[in-house]
Amino acid sequence: MKKFSTVIISFLGFVQISAQKDSIFINAKLSSDRKTLDVEQRIIYHNNSPKDIDSLKLLNWIAAYNNRKTPLVYRKLEDRNNRLHFAKQDELGKLLEINITSDKQNFLTDKKETENLYLPLATPLKVGESVVLNLKYKLQLPDKKFTGYGTSDINTSLKYFFIVPDHFDKDNHLNRHYLDIEESVSFNTFWKIYLSLPAEFQAQGNLDQTADNLFEGYLDSDPEFIISKEKFPVINVNSESFKTEIKLGYNISDQEKENLEFFLPLHLKFIEDRIGSIPEHLFISEKFRAKEDFFGNNDINFWKFNFKLFTDAEKVDQDYFGIISKKVLDEKIIADKQNHHWFKNGLKSYLEIQYLKKFYRDAKLLGNLTETKVLGIKPVKFFHASEVKLLDRYGLAYQYIMTQNLDQKIGERFSELSNFNDMAISNFETGSLFSYTADKMGENQFNNLVKNYISKNTDTQVNPEVFLKELAEQEKSSEYFSDFLKQKNRDNFRLKNFRTKNDAVEIRIVKNTSENIPAKLETESREGSKRSYWVETQKNERLKTFEIPAEDIHKITLNNGYIFPEPNYRDNYLYTKGIFANSKKIKFKLIKDIPNPEFNEIYLNPRVRFSNAYDKFLLGMNFRNESLFDQKFAYSLTPYYSTGTGKMVGTGGVSYSFLPAESFIRALTFGVSAAHFHYDYELAYSRASASAGISFQKPPRSTVSRGLSVSYNYYQRDLSAKMIANRDYDKYNLWSVGYGYTDNQMIHEKSMSISTQGMEDYNKITGEAFYRWEFAPRQKLSLRLFAGYFVRNETRNNTFNYGISRVSDYSFSYNLLGQSATEGLLSQQYILADGGFKSFIPGSVNQWITSFNLDTSVWKMIHIYADAGVYKNKNFDPKFIWDSGLKVRVIPDFLEVYLPVQSSLGFEPGFKDYGKRIRYTLILNLGTIINAARRGWY
To answer: Which of 446, 561, 696, 922 allows an S-S link to 706, with CB 3.0 to 4.6 Å?
Structure first.
């Protein structure tokens, strides 16, 4: 604090020439343990709103770390990160004390736990006038592991902790919460900051350092510091047109520094030529590097093997071009990230695309992996993925999420975007559209437009929609861009057909939109020579006939290389000669792959799997049209050879999904299927099904999913002599209607379902509710409530009864290893369904049952469970049953073992056949594993 008086005098002198820009002076002392920060601060705040204001708002964003109920905590849980939720008190961040005064009044600030501090003014602040606020406060810094800002054993990172005005809310009346999305709030501000640090520590940040621990300068972003005992690298780039100091907030190897000294001047010159002047100072934190580096170029590590997609120099080149591009854009453009995130993100991807076109035009998406040999062969070459270019990644990412109808409109608020859509939509789709427009109008003309727009909006908040209007004035065919912000893109081109007419080829192109979007048509000869044409379309012109010279044309392509974000690229190819003229070729492939839109692909996938004790191992071949991307029309046929019976079995199905872009329905799917397997020794069953299902729309960040299904199933099965004697069913029809609700929150997981099922002999209604609470890290309590009731039951036996401890799998839907097993290890398999009891309580239920299942963590993989319920059979009184025991979670949710202890049957460990009473669950479903892994992305 020794420099306080000297600095404040010079600071006040500076204020006289700072016009209408806010100024902030900070004198901050970091405690010796780097856990608390004492701050003296002065804010000169100008009323830049169009009207007088009667209150001020300051952002107290350290309060976002204060407790479990802040928006930051909820957002982290959506990302499957529970660290902040389970944080200890000394790991949290908070405002410990504060005092705020001005020349005219003292402000009462008793709500230190709120992120928005509202200060009522004694007299309104007139337009253009200013007020000086004096603040004195103390902060408890959060642990750095939560957001990358705060303190750790090694260093301290400061950003978003100082109390500042919200420059995006000139009227000072809207709540803004810290969500860890790197949004700037204190733009166009002069800063002067003195940091008093513990011995041996030094600071480095995005402000110019004018003396020891003294930093000052104008910023259009927020001040950021890394405080450490280490001195991190600084790279100076000197060019004829700019001189830039690049400070890194982390250490790098000597080789990486050498690579950066070579690449950074090239990067900055490339960026300057396209968007204008380069800032004199750039600071790159470790967090910023991790967020903005080049996605998808990392080495692949498998067991003891390491496969390099790109050389170390290439990775540094690709990574830092994206990092530097975004950092320069952040320093030059002031934009509200919540509403206009797509502008800077799109320009970043546009610059990347232009850079890849120049230096990596022929590079593959999988890099050097395509040339990797295993046992003398190059296995990746068998996949179309080996032919996909690095440039194609922008269109493919959008295509992948769009095929699931989980994409979002470009103009969606940033906090509502899923993590994957942040990349695929805000960055890649927007960047592709910028690149497409630049290609059409000329890259130099587009770059000059960007330069001029950024230049004339220096130190001013931009409205990117104005940029789009200026773009449309220079390139009329880009008028559609503004509409793309407001809705999910489903604009599509289709090559309908062609015909030769005299010395020309007449090509008919269909588009599903009335917008005047141009298309890029490309022809290719058998020798590989190519010619390109831009096809202009008019408003409301959905069918375009376009003529080109009748040269040696072998193939016609629209928007080749995923250059325009279409929902369907498969209708953008036509051949002009041979049996596939005016149609697509068929291609057979092994194993799922990135789809090749040029072909109708049929995937032949060898299958080997264990089915059950009767069919045993199944050896077969799956024929399907689905690649790694979902398709609306899907078929699958899988004939198997059953090693257990020596007979042919298998499954097959066809489905079609309607995926309305703007609807409360995400997917409406109709399908038919059939199956034939064995459910007992020498006994087979056949099933024919027809179904319809609705998956309701949800915000992609939401963990909630809802669905409605209707199905009809016809079963025919072989019967043993004993079953015939018991008048068992050899043929039956099942109708069912069900609704399901699931909320896969990380802490409070919930699900609910209700269904009705019937046939000629019965009708029943079933309901189930499930709740799982993670009360401590990896420690959970699970509760399940089940209820089943027969509205009508005139069945001949117990086939369709509710199970108590075993399910009657008459619908063949539970994948039981021993479908008909009544003894032995296979009969001990446990399925959480119906009553859900783990002890072998005999009998089944033909009237009604309610049960309650409880499971809770005790220690590591050891859980205890308890079940209780009441059931009633016809002509019998209701009966209460219960059980309890231990559960060992060998592989949670996939392999678990149940050890019964006490139940309605007695003390079970005392029974001689206790080994036969132990139960287990075994789930061998790859889809379940994949769905669990992708939570938090979309």
So the answer is: 696
